[in-house]
Amino acid sequence: MTAPSTSRLPEPRVSPSVAASTNPHLQITGVTKNFGPQEVLKGVNLAVSKGGTTAIVGPSGSGKTTLLRLIAGFEHPLAGRIALNGNTVAGDGVWVPAHKRHIGYVAQDGALFPHLTVGQNIAFGLDTAKLSGGRRAVAGRVSDLLEMVSLDPAMAKRRPHQLSGGQQQRVALARALAREPELMLLDEPFSALDAGLRVATRRAVAKVLAEAGVTTILVTHDQAEALSFADQVAVMRGGKLAQIGNPFVVYTRPADRATAEFLGDAVILDAWMEGSLATCSLGGIPVRRPPAQGPVQLMLRPEQIRIAEDGDIRGVVVDTDYFGPETTVRLKLAVPPELAGRPDHRYPGGGEIITIRHWNASIARPGMELCLRVVGEGVAFPAEQGPAAGGAAPVTS
Ligand SMILES: Nc1ncnc2c1ncn2[C@@H]1O[C@H](COP(=O)(O)OP(=O)(O)OP(=O)(O)O)[C@@H](O)[C@H]1O
Ligand SMILES: [Mg+2]
Asked: How far is the CA of 307 from the centre of ligand 2 (A)?
């Protein structure tokens, strides 16, 4: 048996039905869940290694919270099995109640007890039997936990309604940390924080959890957060995990067009695949493991498309949008000259409008013609995927 890899290097694409680890802390196998007639989870398979960090991303209503509630033991699965450290906690006729699973759960709404102070809310999670030193020890631990989530220990005396939404979320996090769980489930815990605080709190929480060796599952709407926080990203769509893999793999080699577009901006062009080269309006782009020959859709990330000094690949600036650190530039692509004169060329593109980014706001003005070059490989999807199938509409990011 091989030990679970700790490498952050890209690994081969992981099919949803394959375990990500040989000795997982959490193993979910074929889990389904209905609410009345609605099938919310349609066969979820997921393995999370001990001490690992998994981010679950997916559109609203796709079943992310439902999956966390099943893991925590607040809901029963209809079918399938959930195991912790190799022991079944739900399924196969077994049911281990929530309080015996050693799981910390920070709900999407924080859910603090309104009648208790912040300090009492946090102390509620403490195992006071483990703390020698009575009240003073409890107060000390509450202060430590507040500092851990970047809150002033003086806030312990306040009540939840006297805190902002973001502060309440962090108290909920402190309360869950107080239990010293083996597995922490975080349902959008940073969503009420502003950008700067969000990054700082995320880093602080990730550090605390990593130092304590706590296995963590984070649900988030924020793709950048998922990619930076986790060593495994699971993309939920329509009650199933569409792709599971390390952040680099799911971002650069998404399994399908919807996943590509969910995880970030994507430039998608009609292309003609021959061998491992896709011909499109941006020229010939190498593709690793093409799914088909002939007509395909080619996906590139906007940062792969660079403005060049010269070259044959050209586009005319349609408009620009200034965002501070970068400017987005919309370009109408020309047919590459080596193909324009050849009526037999098979690629279906030309005239598409794509969006790229550049740091220099003054480099592009509407009407200017720019030369472009592509760095790295593209990803090809079968042509029938996605709304632009048939090549009718010019496709953009
Ligand atoms: N207790 C319940 N009773 C009935 N339907 C429910 C219940 N809980 C969730 N649902 C439904 O199940 C589906 C999935 O809900 P869930 O909360 O898991 O989505 P989500 O992915 O967490 O969404 P969001 O990103 O908006 O939080 C939704 O259609 C929701 O309305
Ligand atoms: Mg939710």
From this structure: 40
Question: What is the pLDDT of the chain when averaged over all its residues?
Answer: 86
Superfamily covering domain 24-252: P-loop containing nucleotide triphosphate hydrolases (3.40.50.300)
DSSP 58-83: --TTSSHHHHHHHHHTSS--SEEEEE
Kindly state the tokens that stand for 244: 């599971």
Residue 40 Cβ < 6 Å to ligand 1: yes
CA distance 15 to 242: 9
265-382 CATH, one of 1.20.120.1200, 2.40.50.140, 3.20.170.30, 3.40.1360.10: 2.40.50.140
Q: Is the CB of 63 under 6 A from ligand 1?
A: yes
Instruction: State how far the Cα of 84 lies from the Cα of 94, in Å rounded to an integer.
Output: 12
CA distances, 81 to each of 13, 44, 259, 344 (Å): 24, 10, 26, 55
Q: Which ligand is nearest to the CA of 62?
A: 1
pLDDT in tens, 248-303: 999 999 999 999 999 999 999 999 999 999 999 999 999 999 999 999 999 999 99
Q: Structure pTM?
A: 0.83
